Each structure stands twice: as structure tokens, then as C-alpha cells.
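non-specific protein-tyrosine kinase, pasting as requested.
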Amino acid sequence: MSETQATTAATAVKPLFLNNPEEQEAKLDFVEYWRTLRKHKWAIFAFALVVTLVAGVIAFVSTPIYEAKTTLLIETNKQKVLSIEDVYGGVGASREYFQTQVEIIKSREVSLKTIIKLKLFDNPVYDPRVPPKGFAAFVKQIGFATEEAPKEWTEEKLAEAVLAKFTSDLSIEPIRLSQLVVIRFASPDAALAAKITNSLAQTYIENDLDARYQMTRTASVWLQEQLTGLKEKMNQSEQILQGFREKQGIVKMQENAQNGASQQVEQLQMRLIEARTRRAEVESTYKTVQEAASAGDLASQPAVLVSLQVADAKRQASETQRALSEVSQRYGKEHPKYVKAESEFKSASDNLNRQIELVVGGINNEYQRARSTEKTLEAALSSARGSVQSVNRKEFELGVYEREADSNRQMYDMFMKRAKETNVAGDLQTTVARIVDMAPVPLKPIKPNKPLIVAVALFMGLLVGIMLSLLMELLDNTLKTTEDVENRLKQPLLTVLPMLDSKETERNISGRMVLDAPNSLYAEAIRTARTGVLLSSVDLPSRTLVVTSSVPGEGKTTFSSNLANAHAHTKKTLLVDADMRRPSVAKSYGIDPLSLGLSELVAGTAKLSDCLHKVDGSNLMVMTSGAIPPNPLELLHSARFAQTLEVLAQNFEIIIIDSPPVELVSDAMVIAAITSDVIFVTKAVSTPYPLARKSLQRLRRANAHIVGVVLNSLDFNKAEKYYGEYSGYGKHGYGTYGSTYGGTYGSGNIAPAAKKTV
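C-alpha cells follow.
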């Protein structure tokens, strides 16, 4: 990096996020869908091809099915000599009639007659006596099918057994806005299909003729039987009617027999209504007075106060009571004036009570008179009604006889007319329908439609493949882009490390990428992380950085090794392997794993100089993990470890600690609590963001200061192509750096490891 760029980076205000969620432009969902489809396009095409091939094979090995079609015209303009709908079953040109005929064609009776007529049960396709094949035969062989007792087959039973398959292959559809019905039948045998449709239409016509003929004969016989009895019954009823009239001497009683009696009844009813009304009014007053008498409050009742004597007595009682009250306030009870006033008050009260009793007695007498009047009128009305009812009974009995005679006469006339019409109907049998178009033998099968099946299978395969790819992408909760890191983890992005090839991922090569391939994209990404770390706290004389991740295999050791080498160019740097569960730093630099290291230094069994190892070709000092203690967490949590870090901070400007993953052990949180900064490494398209978010939350709870997140192992070409990661590295050819960048870091030649586009 040039001096101008370094100065600009040092003086510019560094934003917290490279992709601030608040400043992001709204993305169209279909763009993301398109990238997902591009990513899985070959899998989608392969799935669609497999589905198409399977469907094609099934279509080409399937038995061809032929369909025959017969067109039938339902007649509605028959010669209607008869007027009885019972004989013809509701013949008419209405829609209901047409629909009824269609349902008759579909009926079970017509189908069974057609099956028996053609003896379809002798055809191998429909013969129920043929042993089952395919899956049914397999089920029977393995013993799951129920053994049935041998049947004695008759034509009727065979037809019943064939009926289900016959109706499933049969289709009957009326043509809209016409009187035509199309009968279709599908069968592997083309000739049989045509024969069945024609035979079904003819069977329907013959069945209708036979049914109407049988109905006509039945009706004719029944009518003749009924006429004889009806004639005798009519004669008997007329004789009984005439005899009753002569015996009772009745001549048009409905007009003049009840005039006087009905007027008397009406007058009595009016008087009775008036009497009941009067009795109800008096009874209401009577009940009110009785309730008031029980409560001792007769003086306040309106029915009592309406009497002038009661009102005057009540007024006198009130005046004497008021006078007594005034005297009692001035004189004692023995004073003559008090005695006089008290005597007058008692006299007035007694007078009031007598007047009230007289009024109450008058009300009781009036109530009794009203009840007596009502009962008298009820008895008179009952007597008048009895005489009227006697006449009504005679008229009712006469009406019964007259209606019975009229009914018998009408019934006889109607049956006589219908008998004549039915005799004529037997000679006028017309068909209910006629065949317009006989079914020819079909030449081409209707199914399987091979081109359509293949096309639909291809379309459905593509559709299902697309849905599966979108579902897989929706269920993929890993971090794929820099935007995912900042939007989902809510942490600033420190740098993005490219994916290394299989050779570069070896431990002894990947840990020295900054040294061995300084012009590579990976080395430049490491230097970007170094710049971010230095700019985060410029004034600190010493920095202790902890590098950790969520789970193993995310590249934290490789990143910490290369970051330490990058810092070693400008500052005195120490790389400490604190991952005592799976130490890896020693292998990266070819150091003996059994050499003295961090555990011996903290325990005080070795000196600092004995635990430091210099990296060849670099100013970097490395401290391995040393001997692995029984419980590494106790060692890292001890006060001696914190004192050891203070001593190291006095000797080095940058200390980078490679710690264990956060989700496996608590070592990283213990170390992060006593260091200045934490760098969190996550692997692209591998680490689920909920897991990374949980790890960061645990670090924050330990009061760790997180500098940023490193997105490791990102394939820039795929990220730009499938995820919208516009880094520009793959597009603009920045896979390697030339002499301009190489000279800055002391190497004019491009190392072999950097010649590959990463």
C-alpha cells in the first residue's frame, strides 16, 4: 500500500459498517430468485430430465386406450294424445325432463342390461373370474389378501361384478344448449368400445319403450278393476243421501234454518262481553282493596278516596291531628285543651274508619253482583248455543253425505275417462330418443398422449426443481456475503479472505501465505485486516488480540498466523497458541510440539526466552501452547495467566492469541475478558448465522471488545455470480498483484502460490 493510501486511511473517518443496513438500497426479490436458480441450474435441469425420462418410459410402455363416441337425440316433440303424466313419466320439453333422461342413461339398470346383452363378463378385460395380476396378485401371494369362498356365478352376479369397471370407463355428457347427449366409452379394444356405446344407446331406447308399455298395461288393468267397485259405491252413497233428507225433512237449511237462533246467540255474546268487562274492572278494584286491607293501608287507595264521605273524613282527621300537634307543643297531656284536642282527633279517626269500611263493603257487593250477572249470561248463552249446535250437527251430517256422493261420482267419471285414454295409449308407443351418430371403430388412441405427458413431465420437473432449489436456499442460513455478516451479526466486517485451493490449505503452507505469497489476494486481505486493527485504536502502545470462532474448522488459526506475520513487518509481534485443546500453531511453522510454551511460562517452570520461537523469514515471535494441562480452563482463568499477559505486553507491541472456539469451551471468553480486542472468524457458506450470533453474544456477555468479523473462505466468483457480492476481484482480474504492490512489501517477484486465482 502506498504512503498516500496509508495517510488517507489514517485520516479518514472509518464507518462502523461497510454495508449499513439503513443505507442499503431495496433489493427486488426476483433478482435473488434468479441468482438462486443460476446457482442450482444444472441440478434443476438434471431433476427435470430424470422426471421427463421416467414419464416418457411410462407413457411408451402403457397400454393404448381407445374411445368411441355415440350421439343421442332426446325427443321432446312427441305426439301427446294422452293427458295423464303418470303413464308417460313426465314427458316435456323442460330442462328437468332432459336432465332426467340423461340420469336414466347413466342408471345402473341400463348399464346392467348392456353388460348382459353384450356378455362383457366373457371378455378377458372385464371377466371377474380371471385371477388378479400385478400388485393385487402380489398382495394375495404374500398372504395379506382375504381368501374368498368359491362363488357360483350367474349372469346377474357376473354383471354386478363387471359394473364398477364398466361405469368407470363410461362417460355420458349432455351438449349444452341442445337436446343431444354424447356417450363415450374407453377401452383397450377399439371395436369393443364402439360396440358398447352403440349398444348402450339402443338399450336405453328399448328400456324406455318396455317400461312405458308395462306401465300402460298395469294402469289399464288397475283402472278396470277400480271402475266396478266405484260404480257400486257411487250408487250406494246417492241412495243414503236421499234417504237422510227425507227422514229429517231438510230443505236448504244453510239459508234459513239458523237465522233466529244465530241472532239470539250474537246478542247474548255481546251482553256477556260487557258483563265480563265490568266484572274484570270491579274484580281489579276488589283485589286492590283486599291487598290494601291486608297491609292496613286502605286510606291511601284511589278506589276508597273516590268517595266524598271518605275524603271529607280524612280531611277532618288531618285537621284534628294538626291541632293536636300544635296543642302538644304548648301544653301538657293533663291540660284541658290537650284533652279536648285529643278527643276530637280520636272522634275524627273513628269516623274515617267507619267511612272506609262502608266504601269497602260497597265494593264487595258490587263485585258479587258483577259475578252473578256474568254467570247468568253464560248459562243463557250455553243454552242458545246448544240449540244452534243441534242444527249444525244435522247440517254437518248432511254435508258429509253430499260430499261422499259427489266424490264417488267424480272418481267414477275420472276413472272412466282414464280407462279410455289408457286403451288408446297402448297403440301410440313412440321412442324417447334416437341415435343421431353411431360410433365408428376409433383408429387412434386417446391416451397415453405421449407428447403431452413428456411436455407436462418436463414442465413439472422444472417447476419442482425450481421449488426445491428455492426451498434449499431458504433453509440455508449460512453467511454468504459481506452484507450477511453485517446485517445478520450486527458487527463490522474486518476483512474477507478468499478460498484457498487444496494445496494451499495444508497447515504448513496456509499459515505462511503472507510470507510466501505476499502479492496474493489472500495476503492483501490479511493486510486489510491489519490496517483495520491498527486504525481501531491508534494511540494504544500495546494491543492484545484474541482470534476465535464458533466451531473448529473455520480458519481462525490460519488467519491468526498470517495476521501476526503481517503485523511483524511493522511492529514487534508475538503469536500465542492458547488453544490447548487442539494446538496447531507449532505445526504451521514446523516447531516441535513438545517444546516449551505458554503452559510452562504460566506455571513458572520456564523462562520467557525459552518459550519464544522466531519464524524464519520474519520478525514474528511464536509461543506454542506447551504441554497440555489436565484442565486448560483453570490455567487460563488463573491470576498468573493475567500477569503473564501483562509481562508479554511490556515486551511486545502486538500480541495475537489463537484461542479455542467459543461454542465448544469457555476458554475464549476467559481470555477475551482480560485482553484489549477480539477478532471473530466465521467461514462463508458453512457457519450458520444463528450459531455465529450466539457466539458473539457470549463474547459480549464476557465484556469482550469485538473489533470486527472476518469472513473466511469466500469464493469471490461464486459470491458475485450467485449472491450479488460485488467485490470486483473475480470480475476485474485481481486474483494476483503485480510488481507495484509487490515492491511495497519487499518482493518484486510473484510467488508460485500467488499465481493461481483464488
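Note for the archive: Residues 151 and 658 are 85 Å apart (CA to CA).
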